[in-house]
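Hey team,

Filing this mostly as a record. A colleague (T.K.) asked me to run one chain through the structure pipeline before their review meeting, and I want the input and output archived in the tracker in case anyone asks later how it was produced. No errors, nothing strange. Just documentation.

Input sequence:
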Amino acid sequence: MGALKPWHIAVLVVVLVLLFGAKRLPDAARSLGRSLRIIKAETKGLVDDDKGDLAEKADAQAGRQPLPPQQVQQQPAQNPPVVDPVQRSRDVI
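Output structure:
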């Protein structure tokens, strides 16, 4: 019950040929192979990118230096007074 026997494979092939036709099966298999090849290449690229990103981040952290202090001119803050929104709504009514 665990393994495929040769007659199982033969029945599967006959069903596929009847469903899709002998003309479309090679095209379907070719496109499936291309898709799997693309997926394999993309996953390998993602793994390589992750390894490269870690090395780049480590290099970037090592090369950092603090910014030189800048002279800031003290200007009086011109912030509007804080108004309580609840009190403001009571004033409007």
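Quick notes for T.K.: The radius of gyration is 34 Å. The helical segments are 6-20, 25-62, 85-92.
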